[in-house]
Amino acid sequence: MFLQIQGIKKSFGSGDSRVNVLKGLDLEIEKGEFCVLLGPSGSGKSTLLNIIGGIDSADEGKLIIDGECLADMSEKKLSVYRRKHLGYIFQMYNLIPNLTVRENIEVGAYLSDQPLDVDELLHILGIYEHQKKLPNQLSGGQQQRCAIGRAIVKNPDILLCDEPTGALDYNTSKEILKLIETVNQKYGNTIVMVTHNDAIKDMADRVVKLRDGMIRKNYINEHKIPAAELDW
Amino acid sequence: MKNPLHKRLPRELKSEFGKYAVVFFLMVATIGFVSGFLVADNSMLIAYNESFEKYNIEDGNFRTADRIYRSQREDIEKLGIRLYENYYIEEELDNGNTMRFFKNREEVNKVCLMEGVFPEHTGEIAIDRMYADNNQLSVGDTLTSKDKSWKITGLVALSDYSCLFQNNNDSMFDSVKFGVSVVTADEFDSLNQDKLQYNYSWKYNQEPSDEKEEKEISEDLMEDIGAIVTLETFVPRYTNQAITFTGEDMGGDRAMIIMLLYIIMVIMAFVFGITISNTIRKEAGVIGTLRASGYTRRELVLHYMELPVLVTLAGALIGNILGYTVLKNVCAGMYYGSYSLPTYKTVWNAEAFLLTTIVPVLIMLVVNYSVLRHKLRLSPLKFLRRDLSGKKQKRAIALSPRIKIFSRFRLRVIFQNMSNYVVLFIGIVFANLLLMFGLLLPSVLSHYQLEIQNNMLAKYQYMLQVPVSAISGSKLEELLNLAMFYMDVRTDNDDAEKFSAYSLNTLPGKYKSEEVLLYGVEPDSKYVKADLEDGAYISSAYADKFQIQVGDTITLKEKYEKDEYSFQVDGIYDYTAGLCVFMERDKLNETFDLEDDYYSGYFSDTEITDIRKKYIGSVVDLDALTKISRQLDVSMGSMMGLVNGFAILIYMVLIYLLSKIIIEKNAQSISMVKILGYTNGEISRLYIMSTSIVVVICLLVSLPIERAVMEVLFREMMLASISGWITMWVDPMIYVQMFAAGLLTYVAVALLEFRKIKKVPMDEALKNVE
Asked: Which residues are in the ABC transporter domain (chain A) (predicted)?
């Protein structure tokens, strides 16, 4: 199994104001799988994603990726882990405002020894003609494409997406989802996506539903449909 | 692959051009000035030290009443020295000044030509460059006396007059009213030969190894020469102020200038620190994403450090280039404004490079690195959530709803920007200190002159000079000369009152050893009104300088001997013009084994006209006492303008940078209130007014702090740079001037900031809002 989550617990605050966000989760994800984490606000899905991403730590439990246990890693090793294996996409695009589209993608490419071809990627992302523009000259969808480009250009093993369409309209959201699907198929990255949009589960290989810090459902989607056919 | 983040640097520079330009220019100005100063200081000190050999400066000189015969000369030269004629004649000029004429020197005390040519014909003259500067004279001008005139053909520096002391006993040199010059031999012969002074310079055949040996040799020499000819003066080089004063004084300002550089660097580093914090806050999302993607903290620290360090490095390099080329001359000019130094060659100064380039860049590196390390210590998640405060403010500071919303708003802005205001306050204190320093000196000097005028011991103090022949010849000759001396120095002036004087030195230690004049006065003196009886009083200047109180014991020593003398201080006498000890004449004579009726001079409120002038060593009148303040005014006056300009510049830069940061920090809120319908004027009242209030408070609160710091600095400066003492005095108007200068500067900056507020776009509020 590529990604193993075993008994992960996480709480915030202390004393009376202590909140148990994750109450002991177990989950396994195959390499190349497209996994969607669904759940209402406060269910703990983003926290779980951040723990997988090594930017947050669990209070208890183990997270094993490709045989390596994250809990044993130092801050420095975690950085290397993120550098080598992870790509991140957020709801806010967080692009560097004074770098062009192409340069923003190159910022990601710099982290990899064998990055993808930036030109090819720009074509795939559909922003080749905007490559010399600054982020503030782009629409929200174009900015998110650029952010996706930055995340996948280093060809990460795992692509973590935190509400990537949360700030986009219906059509643009579908475009972005199609793009993520393409990336998954073309490059074979494992994708873990957090969303509260229930419709997106239909394009995933695995669906995990969370509520109150517990996994309520975890199943393989037998009737996966292409992103283009999603509707909500 | 090159780090693509590097590509941000030129764009960052372009978008923040104002900020970086201001910092850059401040760096260039500071580093340029300091490196110029250090280079000039060092080069000139080298030139000065080399001048002894280059211009073959004498080992000493003496004056005789008559020309020395060949046989006498041969006898003197047998004592192990070589003699050179260095006759001079002094003439009163029409402008009221005194000019000392020499023949051009070929062998010893050679002359450095600084401009024009040496005189070649009669009626031509080359005058001291500094005297010329101070009297607005230049090549081609004419000098006139009662019955002669000379055309100035050149400006020169006489190597034995790097400091224009007319008499070696003078307490301060005078480069305004006294000048030296060289003329041709024919011209010299045509001057009034009645005034000819038979001055001879000597060089040892074998140089003494140190000052102590030099003293021993010269004392023997004085006696031996005195046995051959009648000496009027005898001045070994190490006691010749005209030669040694410059060397002793140079280099004194170094520590102060370097300190100034480092304070500015640290302040600039903190400004950068705050700017960086602001940038990090602005880019929190990006930083979080980069960190989450695998960028290490070190990579980001280096990235954010690059620009400040590059700007500092560029500023330091260009500052150094300017220092070595243009500003060096400005700083050398300050020395040329005080001393008649020969021309100098710029010498590469590795220490200056280290102090002005390597150290500032290091300061910048350390401060920026520490700030960044601290700021970037947070987890990527915190950056992604824009939760950058390490400690969360538990709750907002409670403000009464009765306070009007505008006032509450302003208070909130102030609370929010406290850290910026702390730096602003430090900056204001520092800039105001500089300003105070610039404004202080002229007022201190004029107050000092006034004070001296009010508490002079007597309008005239005549210091008698026992001719050297009275102590350096055969016993019979000595007695005869001494008797003649005492006959000729008797006066019938009723105001005249005898005093004896003796000069000792303070013990070297925390402060450098300094000459103290001990006065022995008559028991019922009408000039020194103190109950001396058996004890000793010290002058207030002495008490102030060495922080001595009544009851303390002071110990003084002979300058070149080990003998020490201790006195208990019974009182402090209000006398600011010098470091003195007062006691009864009998006591002084007894202490120093002088004869009972020995005296060294007269106090008098009226001019004494019936004693022979040649026995008057010096006359201490108001003019002589205020020479020190007059000369300081000439030497440092021009620098004060520079200091004031610099202070205002620093002040403007700091306020500009910090208020810019505050406005940037609040750009989103400003934009939001704009959307709500607030006008630019109202927004300015909220944001600029907050800073205005803080500036006014800082200005007022800083005044007593500056006063206290200045007391310490002034004291240290006076200890380091002058013999004697000048008491610090702050004219109340200085506070008003400082406040007004601060406020006006702020208004100028506020107007710039107002423009900035107008430019904040309304969509700012709609961006990056989560």
From this structure: 3-230
